[in-house]
Structure prediction request, 398 residues.
Amino acid sequence: MTLPTLPPDVDEIVPGVVADRRYLHENPELGFDEHVTSKFVVERLEALGAEDIQSGIAGTGVTALIHGTRGEGKCVLLRADMDALPILEETPVEFASQNPGVMHACGHDGHTAMLLGVARILTERRDQFPGSVKLCFQPSEEANAGGAKPMIEAGVLENPHVDACFGQHVMSDRPTGEVWVGGGPIQASADMFTITVQGKGGHGAIPHTAIDSIMVASDIVSGLHKIVSRNIDPLDPVVISVCSFHSGTAFNVIPDTAELKGTVRTFSPENRDLAEKRLKEVAEGVAAAQGATVTIDYDRGYPPTINDDAMSALAAASIAKIVGEDNVKPMVPIMPAEDMSYFLEERPGCYFMTGCGNEEKGIVWPHHHPRFDLDEDVLGIGVAALAQVAIDYLNAES
Ligand SMILES: [Zn+2]
Ligand SMILES: [Zn+2]
Prediction:
């Protein structure tokens, strides 16, 4: 892979972005606990002269503004997540986690360092755009009560009013130098359910006097899998997985309860509603047919991440200026969820994937693995790409 030639001002700050990423990597913090990270971000923004720096939003979130000098215009929000994962790091890097059991194993250290780099570039290029850029450093993407929603509830999309949102995620299964961009649904929703079956306990040798909760729950599992194959449009993918099944304690006792837990993943609000509705109908119907009852706890997690078509086309054209047209690839949707989705529910925008894998350097481990690493050559690319997207958006829309 030949790496792109970066704009000179980006090239110049790359060592600083790498140093920031390494500092953040060494000091990982879990969701809503990003106090050191947040303080570091604020200090960097203050040193740059960013305006209206606000911290402590939704706990540890930070925002700041950079005003262009080409006059009035729109406001574009650029988002980075800051949290790490509860993983004991196993990489050989010299800047490995100093916080045992906590690790930046998803690349959010890179996202935060890159957005600080973007802040630096845009501060220097104020004369290239009208309107303003709102930098948004978000707590807790990994824990499924993420920081995006409470930041939006705290008003980050107003004062000034935000017109569009952009962000990026590094991807270790794609090579450094390639960027994946596209409109429409790109990441799934992630809902969780618990179904508790109430039957009637009894003797394992006298089953006709009992209502077998294991049998009922088994039929529910098989019924749930028919939702995907028989109720959902096969061109709009859905996953329903039962991932936990607990019941019983003895070889000769029919247990009176059984508990199922699982997850539902969808790419559209319509399928999300349909899957939830059918899950409840199937569980209740199957139980009723056998004289049992169910209690269903259905918990909605992150919604599907849906990119705006026009904003994605704009982002693709901007990113092509940095990596070349051939290295801008059409986005391939993935099932993991992402709370950038809440920003994209509220405003048009695009979340794109920046390749950070490099087989030659042994950077091949998947996200959330104790040996996950990112190819630091992605950092300059990500800075240049996101800065270009912001500049092009503000010039196009103002
Ligand atoms: Zn992750
Ligand atoms: Zn992530």
